[in-house]
Specification:
single chain, alpha/beta, 9-stranded mixed β-sheet, two-stranded antiparallel sheet, 51% helix
Amino acid sequence: MNQRCADIFALIREKKPLVHHITNIVVANDNANAMLAIGALPVMASSQMEVEEMTGQSDALVLNLGTPTPEIVESCFLAGKKANQRGIPVVLDPVGAGATHFRTQTVKNLLSEIKISILRGNPGEIAALFNEPGTMRGVDTKRTLQTPMILAQKASLYYRTVVAVTGKIDYISDGQRIFSVHNGHHWLTVVTGTGCMASSLCGAFAAVEKDHGLSSAAALGFLGVSAEIARKNATGPGSFHYALFDAMYNMDIETFASSLHIEVEA
């Protein structure tokens, strides 16, 4: 398992996939830097005038609803349909689903009209897709009635896609398998945009590996291992933020493979 995940990372550095993001203004810079650090190529085109053309050149599409507007939402649908036509993976990050009706309904509409390859969110966001009340406070999880593992399974079966529920332990389900990723550090929760970064990584890893359950586990494991390394070179969230990019950039295949802690069960 660890070696297969490391091989996916090696393919990213070899193939340098182009990952198109329609993302939010809070984290766009970090998303782009994460892609460059691992060897992928980022592009951030959100205008309806060019999203289809840009998606036509890309190897994966990441849709992030952190700062949604009607125009951005329309761009997500245009890009998503183009990605489906081309058969490239689409990652959906339902930022803040459950916080407002607009966000929640937009996510549900995208899941209904676009073939989503990977749905990556926190427990509150995923729970909100089943109309579970009181799951979010702003864009952070408030509470959920079900465990993250059950949420991943339930959402994967219902929406017929790979679902990654991230937290202290990350759970990924493809409807048949459950991956649990035990790497990471709690400082990831006090730096803005690390969840969005996780979705970007899922896009890059999916661009070079068709098994999207495995690729998502590898992507989240990569972020977790990078966080563990960054913590050793940081004194707080600020220095951790910068150390995280250094850890991604300097990651070697052997360190990644030997540091992963991923379990899988049917």
